[in-house]
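User: I would dearly like some help making sense of a protein record. This is the protein in question:
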Amino acid sequence: MKGSLFSSEIAEPYAQALMSLAESHDITRSVGDNCRDILEILEESAELRAFISSPVIKDEDKRAVLNRILGDDIHHYLRNFLMLLVDKRRIVFLEAICQQYLALLRKLTNTVLAEVTASTELSDRQRRDVIDKIKALTGAESVELKTDNDPDLIGGVIIKVGSQVFDASLRGQLRRIGISLTGAS
């Protein structure tokens, strides 16, 4: 169900409600940080995703596990929200709700999400350069980077912002040269 239209139709109103709650208490960024942490935990643990999605597991067990995993680092409003999701049997949509909340937060703060693929891990200076370039291209106030490594790129980076793709990789340059040489003959 992950990524489905049905999932996003259910997740969107919950994410909007969470955003409304966060705005009214001036904790939008804090809740956003918590949502990123939750997404990271869910991404790393297929067992946890299966556990919270299981209709067989009791709600009180789900609440106990969530409380134990999230600890005291999570804002209490978000903790209460998660317990409500368990009670309403909507915790299965937690990942989609967090992703939708982050999309709303990016819109609110004029932040763009940039997916950067590089041949090697980016240095701090390279990250700053990429962020500056993306700000210049998009006019965004800030940039949220999601990085990935692909040794097949040989060198350079591929930057995806929304539907736009900027291919500054050596592999992309070689492909463009090959196309131009093929077209010239």
